[in-house]
Design brief:
By secondary structure, this protein is an alpha/beta fold. It has nine helices and eleven strands. The protein has an eight-stranded parallel beta barrel, surrounded by five helices. The relative contact order is 0.15.
Length: 236
Amino acid sequence: MEIIPVIDIKDGLVVSAQQGQRDSYQPIKSTLCSLSTIESVLNGFLSVHAFATIYIADLNAITNTGNNYNLINQVITKNKEIDFWVDNGKKIHELAIPNHTNQKSIIGSEYQNMTAFQDKVQPIKNNILSLDFFPSQGYTGPNELLENSTLWPENVIIMSLEYVGKNAGPDIERLKFFYQKHPDKIFIAAGGVRNEKDLFSLKKIGINYALVASALHSGTITAKVIKNLQTKKYPD
């Protein structure tokens, strides 16, 4: 099991995500750091574990209210040993070659229009797809993208925004459905992971990657928990 810490940044500060309600996100309060700056939060995560991958969402870029490109680029440049997955609301035809070799783009289904997908399969294959599910709305994006797995890259995030920050556990049934239907893909759970038990529940259904924020900040997922996951010490 690999944990991928999440940094949601808005107006220059790292914020706490709650069920996709982006307008109401507030600066993060964490046991790992005293400040809500991106560098402070990243250092807090790295004090727990030498994470190989970090997910960053630029909420201003996603909501067309500015961007945090400079801050994100600075962090990526300073931490070349880490792979960064960056979501800045780009449509497939807007994707450019990343500025950094340790950066990949998140292709969020909620931003896409299938008319722009013609001859654009390779950019998808080189990045990370996020299939986005919102509270009450369910899947958000072109149905063709949801249904045509030949368009998908190897790594696909199942972004269950209803579960983000809700402390209700991950979206097990949806993740199980996708894993069983598409065993050739690597699925990443996003939303709801609270503790060690949730992570082992994901492993049992074949999900070996999870985006996590709240459980790291609260201290319920610790260095010891991560070590247990890596050494396959299953709880009773």
